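Molecular record:
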Amino acid sequence: MTPVNLIIYGMANGTIYGAVALALVLIWRSTRIVNFAQGGMLMFTTFIAWELVERHHQSYWLGLVVAIAAGLVLGAVVERLLVRPVENGPPLNAVIVTLGLLLALEAVAGMIWGNGLSSYPPEFSLNFYHVGHQVIYLSPNFLFIVIAALAVMVALYLLFQRTSLGLRMRSSAFNPEVARLLGVRVGRMLTLGWALAAGVGALAGVLIAGTEPNYMNPNGFDGLLILGFTAAVIGGLDSPVGAVVGGLVVGVALQLLDNYVSGDIDFFFVFALLVVVLMVRPNGLFSRRSVRRV
């Protein structure tokens, strides 16, 4: 594989990681919580879409719409029933709740759909493009993922930077007491943030599931959560643009590592990269907020 193709293929994979990072960024910006159950939530909604498409022979697009709708409902229910009772406690409480939710969702999915490997049929071809006799390591399906991820990034940027709804969501996350005094319904904003994040996660799950055969598995998205979280931290948990850029950085770095070193140390490299970024620039490459030091 030529260096150019390595970068192209790495960027295509990086867009997938960026899509997961976008969901994490959305929930952080709207609630100031890192949702470690994001992988389980997008897995569960993707299985709902898989049930419609694979077992009931419905269209890919119907499955995608149902998955996003299920994500919106799941996110709202999780915030209302699980997160809200602990939101005023120590931050570690919310972390423990999301980790417990991740394990619960994976267990329930295993009981419903089994723990074997399944395939999610992609809507577009996985065959790489050809330019003359040269193979370009980019398929129509990957191109669709890139376009979808960029569209979500732009939509989130406009939501938080150009709309009053985005301003209310951010104020509810940063300073809920002041937001309440200004007439913002903080509870509704937090519920909306969780719902939107789960909806974006459901979109990412369906997009990702069709990239490789036998990808569907209750535990199959755990690695993606780690890579998506790393991408979000690199770009900055406050930045939708940073999430996509962070995903591209992780994707290209891993592809180069696999080709020139070894694929057996991928997660060690990701962990080392995460540590370096947290030490050098804790707020991420694209965060505008500075750390206040005493």
About this structure: The longest strand covers residues 129-131. The two ends are 50 Å apart (CA to CA). Residues 16-221 form one domain.
